[in-house]
Amino acid sequence: MTRSSLRTDGAFLVGITGMIGGGKSTAARILEELGGIRISADEIARKYTDPDSPISKELIDSLGAEILDESGKIDRKRIAKLVFGNAEKLKILNSLTHPRIRKEFLEVLGSLKEASLVLWEVPLLFETDSYTLCDVTVCVISDPEVSLERTVKRDGISREEAEARAKSQLSLQEKAKKADYSIKNTGDLQDLRKECEYLYAELKGRMK
């Protein structure tokens, strides 16, 4: 993969993606335990949909007052319910948040020491052009039904909402086809750890 000209750092950047609830965060944390440096796009993004979002005015102007709670504050769940049922609204939200997430990510990446193995956990790795920043990409393969059930339980949302979120992304098959590597999360945690250990050794080998 050709590295983007936006990058001036010396890190080896691994983009990790997969289906919602598919275990990409768990895989990234295991790889972090093995020696990588993990950065989560979701964790960076969260502050932009917090009640005290630095872009609250832009969000309200673009998405409307229906994203506010009873006290007039930004409500992340209301944003999610709105955008995952409306492709145009989702596009607007992404246009407001993604450039800021990328800018912040590149700043963090630039502060790291040379030759670091960096794990960038990105739900929309291929849906945006985030993959162009990466040296290699990885897709976590999971059982779609199990992934949806995990999302419902984890986020406290309905099955319909979970399905809407999944449909707003590329299919798991499409992501796997685009990725340089795939690891399976279809067994228990120990099975996933073995997959990650093999992948980590492979990635370290590519850094030499």
Q: Any idea what the shape is?
A: globular
Whole-number tally of structural domains: 1
Identify low-pLDDT runs: none
Main beta sheet strand tally, sense and closure: 5 strands, parallel
The CATH topology label is Rossmann fold
Q: Give the percentage of residues in beta strands.
A: 5-15%
Subcellular location: Cytoplasm
Organism: Leptospira selangorensis
InterPro entries: Depp_CoAkinase, P-loop_NTPase
Binding site for ATP: 21-26
Question: What descriptive keywords fit this protein?
Answer:
208 residues, alpha/beta, Rossmann fold, 9 helices, 5 strands, globular, dephospho-CoA kinase activity
Overview of this structure, please?
The structure is a single chain. With 208 residues, the protein is α/β, with parallel strands linked by helices. The chain has one domain: 3-Layer(aba) Sandwich (Rossmann fold), CATH 3.40.50. The protein is 50% helix and 13% strand. It is built from nine helices and five strands; from the N terminus they run E-H-E-H-H-H-H-E-E-H-H-H-E-H. The protein has helices spanning 24-33, 41-46, 56-63, 76-83, 87-110, 144-155, 159-167, 172-178, 189-207, and strands at 12-18, 37-40, 117-121, 136-142, 181-185. A five-stranded parallel β-sheet has the order 2-3-1-4-5, with helices on both faces. Helix 6 packs across helix 7. The two termini are 16 Å apart. The mean pLDDT is 92.
Q: What's a quick, concise take on this entry?
A:
With 208 residues, the chain is of the alpha/beta class. It has nine helices and five strands, in the order βαβααααββαααβα.
What's the arrangement of secondary structure elements?
Layout: E1 12-18, H1 24-33, E2 37-40, H2 41-46, H3 56-63, H4 76-83, H5 87-110, E3 117-121, E4 136-142, H6 144-155, H7 159-167, H8 172-178, E5 181-185, H9 189-207
Parallel strand pairs: 1-3, 1-4, 2-3, 4-5
Helix pairs in contact: 3-5, 6-7
